[in-house]
Amino acid sequence: MGNHQIELIEDPNKPRFVIEFIVLNANKEPFNNPLVRQALAYAIPYDTILGRIYANRYNRLYSIIPKGLPGYTEDGIIKYNYNISKAQELIKQSGIDPTQYTIVINYNLGNDQRAQTAAVLANAWGRLGFKVTIEPLNWPTLLTKTEEGDFDVYIIGWSPDYLDPDNYASPIFYGGTQFSELKVTAVNTASEIANLLSKATVYDVGDAVVVVGPKGSGASVEIPQGKEIYVVQYVVDEKATKPVEESTGWVDINPAFYRNYDIDALIVAARTHFEPKLRETLYKAISIASNRDPAIIWLGQGKFFMHQWSWVKGRYYTPLELVRYDLVWETPDANVASLGIKDYKNDPETLVIATIGWPQSFDPAASYESFGWDIFTQIGTTLVTFWRENVEYVEPAGAVAWAHDEEGTTWYFVIRGGMKAYDPWNNKVYNITAVDVLFTIWRIARLHLDPSWMIYTYVDVNASSVLTEEEFKQILAQGLVTEYAGKSYKVNSTEELMKIFGYSGPTAGVVKLKLKQPYPAILPILAAPFTMIISMQYALGDKYQQALADSNNGKNPAAWAKYVASGEDDATYKLLHEKPISTGPYYVADYQQDSYIVLRYNPYYWNATLWQQLYGFKP
């Protein structure tokens, strides 16, 4: 088109976080035999699948933590390749007769790539002596059968809800073991381990060694010299641990129905410890464990690529594919063309995106799909954010600083002053305070709609509250901990805390979030678009003042249950479902269901000076 062309931008060194894998039913013969699992992993033509079927859009993946997240490692990893001879030898060692087994491979009907992959697997595994059949299923049926453990093998993928290795380890690999005791200890010598564990499994992760096993004594291990040693000891709570056959895949056990006490102890330890280096070390051990015994056979991790007209500039890599459009710009000679919708047109001042589908809802608390999250990335401000291409740690956004107690179960977020919410439907503006932030989070849990599990699973919203800055100062004086930019700090004053985050502007109160258990990944969850801050006054309308009074200005959020119901019959849901409010760089100015959505710059955006810096204007 003129001097412009469509550009395809690729970079194999910038991974996407979507992964593809094959699930074996480890609670069913013959997949309950680890040698059979290894044999099947060696009997897969990976190059054919990723090269021909997936058109080289995926890199090989060897373990559960994808490249780009803490915990990814190539140390101690078995790089399974297509080796039929080795696979046949492993089958022989396993002691089974493969001709006595029929393997049924499931995948979701209509997914051509998985259909072709299933055909390749059927051919390869047939060479081991198995009879293999392929059974495509519609999505609801596939989910039901796999949740109930009624399957042999299926092909599936995963895209994270939030950027943390636990959003892979826990849903995909945790076996559901409950522990009455679990402790992580750093030791200096291997001889000390004999006084901590009765038996041990060792994971050498490169610069450190992780040793895990049941609490006791007598374990004997050899540890390479000059490495840090972390010991994970545990006691299983047999009564609280649901039997595998009574468990539900993807809910209280991993999709492979695979249980290993050592691995589960590593996952729980990594999930509940905050020190960044320790967490990364534990997740590296989990990665190695997921590779050694392939109850799940890892296929590939998506490569970064995008396409655009050459007049579009500034688009950037983001693993979740949620780019802020206000950071994108167009050259002055961009194509001008009518869109055929009212008087809207494509021009240098308008970014036009063609896509498919429609947002599940304009209420962020109800949306659990990519289109909706894309919109909320544009119209919302979350407490914290991943800025541009950085996915290693979150940056301040609606919160200018945060800290937590030593246990990690009570978190404090200092709210940015001067934030406003814009209601374009009535041309009204609302000031945002800590009360609005707590109401936003509390309401997500209360509605109990699709994305709400990420809040109610980890946050006790009724035990959370709003604090004044003075109340927070008194708590700080007793000592708190914070993590920022990969480092941990102990703080005792507001001045110390603000210095760490480099903020000296106004504040609007403090939100105290009470977690049900320590969970470092609460920060990535609070960066997810469904948590965008809304105005309590806008949501509740004429009931706002009474709700505010009943809650004692956010001291008792349980009082809001009188004003917000669960489910889609709730009045606040019905309002936001059709008329979203903006706290972000854009607002929804116009839309037609299933046709188009128009976003315009939000003149009340708290960071609108960014546009002055980037483009020389401010709305």
Largest sheet composition: 6 strands, mixed
So what's the overall shape? Answer: globular
How are the strands of the biggest sheet laid out side by side?
A: 2-10-1-5-3-4
The portion of residues assigned to helices is 25-40%
Strand percentage lies at: 15-25%
Second rung of CATH, namely the architecture of the largest domain? Alpha-Beta Complex
CATH class of the largest domain: Alpha Beta
CATH topology of the largest domain: Dipeptide-binding Protein, domain 1
Mean pLDDT: 94
Low-confidence stretches are: none
- Write out the CATH superfamily name of the largest domain: Dipeptide-binding Protein, Domain 1
By helix and strand content, what is the structural category? alpha+beta
- The tally of helices reads 18
- The tally of beta strands, per DSSP, is 26
Oligomer state of the chains in this structure: single chain
- What is the radius of gyration computed over CA atoms, rounded to a whole number of angstroms? 26 Å
Please indicate the count of domains: 2
Gap from first CA to last CA: 31 Å
For this entry, give a set of tags.
619 residues; 2 domains; four-stranded mixed sheet; 25% strand; alpha+beta; Dipeptide-binding Protein, domain 1; single chain
Task: Walk me through the structure.
There is one protein chain. With 619 residues, the protein is an alpha+beta fold. The chain has two domains: 11-172 and 289-301, Dipeptide-binding Protein, domain 3 (Roll); 312-615, Dipeptide-binding Protein, domain 1 (Alpha-Beta Complex). The protein has 18 helices and 26 strands. The strands form nine sheets. A six-stranded mixed β-sheet has the order 2-10-1-5-3-4. Strands 6-9-8-7 form a four-stranded mixed β-sheet, with helices on one face. Strand 25 (586-592) and strand 26 (596-601) form a beta hairpin. Helix 6 packs antiparallel against helix 7 (261-272) and helix 7 (261-272) runs antiparallel to helix 8. The radius of gyration is 26 Å and the shape is globular.
